[in-house]
Amino acid sequence: MTALPDSALVLGLESSCDETAAAVLRADGTILAEAVLSQLEDHAPYGGVVPEIAARAHLAHLPALVRRVLEQAGTTPAGLSAVAATAGPGLIGGLIVGATLGKGIALAQGIPYLAINHLEAHALTPRLPGVASHPLAFPYLLLLLSGGHCQCVAVEDVGHHRRLGSTLDDAVGEAFDKSAKLLGLPWPGGPHLERLAQGGDPARFPLPRPMFGRPGCDFSFSGLKTAVAQAVAKGLDDMGRRDLAASFQASVAAVLADRARNALAMLPGATALVVAGGVAANAGVRAALAGVAQKAGLPLVAPPIRLCTDNAVMVAWAGIERLKAGMADGLDHAPRPRWPLDQLRQAGAEQAGGRP
Ligand code: KG4
Ligand code: ZN
């Protein structure tokens, strides 16, 4: 452990997908400033994220966003103690924009640069003071449920994570978005589908529950999406669309609960079940996971939605955790479009110069 004064300021940058975000945190976890610019409107006409549009938008907006958060935090680049930027996994154009800006500031100020793994940033968010009702100790189980990621992760220490299971095909957010599209809803469809499902009959359509009851905690959602497509193809009135949305959501919630139960059994000693990613905003999913946690005698920790979806607070916080553990990265660290959590340990040990 390294002594990092509580008053030290860390800038966080996030640009791995379609959110441009910057934040300034004090090393004690106090959020001094945060800003997120969504590119939803830029990508909506295409029904998905267009990498080239995303990279150009990050380049256009990130520098001004950094100036804004520094001003809000009442500081300047000279007042920073470190810069943390998402360096992967994600879309390479955006990663290069954020990482290069981060390195530039670190170089100019002569302060440490931290190349943050986006998944680790999600994984460490529940340790940010104030997120859980008491400081969350390792190990805990993380269910990362977003548009791009769907995995069960054993979070064992800073830089030490084990993927217990992941999706064999679509991510759960992707399944929401594709099913919503089939139901004629706008992209990204998760929140729209949840609204449509309200008042619908979840038992009307006997949809498959892929992987339910199987050993392990892998996921699969493409068959569920196909079943939704088949139901839609038969023709649905408004009530039918509502019932189908409710049936889809019930199926997803049941599968996630089943997978979470198995994952918890694979991590004896877990202190909590943590859920993160955009799909964690879904009330049905949260309720199902709360039931699993309660049965296991563990708290369900769900960070507030703005910290569950992509943001820069989590990146700055991961930077603070890594600095406290004595880690930092060289300015030659290259952004990585693919960067599984399991490979963090090795990379961290090399770059930190010796942390086991
Ligand atoms: O974590 P996130 O903001 O971005 C990444 O994908 O990295 O997650 C976005 C995903 C989308 O697929 C979106 O449809 C889904 O989260 N989502 C929801 C809800 N809110 C967002 N899915 C179901 N119910 C919701 N309320
Ligand atoms: Zn994310």
Task: Explain how this protein is built.
- The chain is α/β, with parallel strands linked by helices and 356 residues long.
- It has two domains: 9-125 and 310-351, ATPase, nucleotide binding domain (Nucleotidyltransferase, domain 5); 138-302, Nucleotidyltransferase, domain 5 (2-Layer Sandwich).
- The protein has helices at residues 40-43, 51-72, 92-109, 118-124, 172-182, 190-197, 222-233, 238-265, 283-296, 305-308, 313-324, 344-352; strands spanning 9-14, 19-26, 31-38, 82-88, 113-117, 140-145, 150-157, 160-166, 273-276, 300-301.
- It has a five-stranded mixed β-sheet, with helices on both faces.
- Strand 9, helix 9 and strand 10 (300-301) form a beta-alpha-beta unit.
- The longest helix has 28 residues, at 238-265.
- Zinc ion is lined by residues 118, 122, 146, 310.
Q: How many independent structural domains?
A: 2
Quickly give the structural class: alpha/beta
How many individual helices? Answer: 12
Query: Strands of the biggest beta sheet: in what spatial order?
Result: 3-2-1-4-5
Query: Percentage of helical residues?
Result: 40-55%
Give me the Rg, rounded: 20 Å
Profile the largest sheet: 5 strands, mixed
Which helices and strands, and how do they pair?
Blueprint: E1 9-14, E2 19-26, E3 31-38, H1 40-43, H2 51-72, E4 82-88, H3 92-109, E5 113-117, H4 118-124, E6 140-145, E7 150-157, E8 160-166, H5 172-182, H6 190-197, H7 222-233, H8 238-265, E9 273-276, H9 283-296, E10 300-301, H10 305-308, H11 313-324, H12 344-352
Parallel strand pairs: 1-4, 4-5, 6-9, 9-10
Antiparallel strand pairs: 1-2, 2-3, 6-7, 7-8
Zinc ion is lined by residues 118, 122, 146, 310.
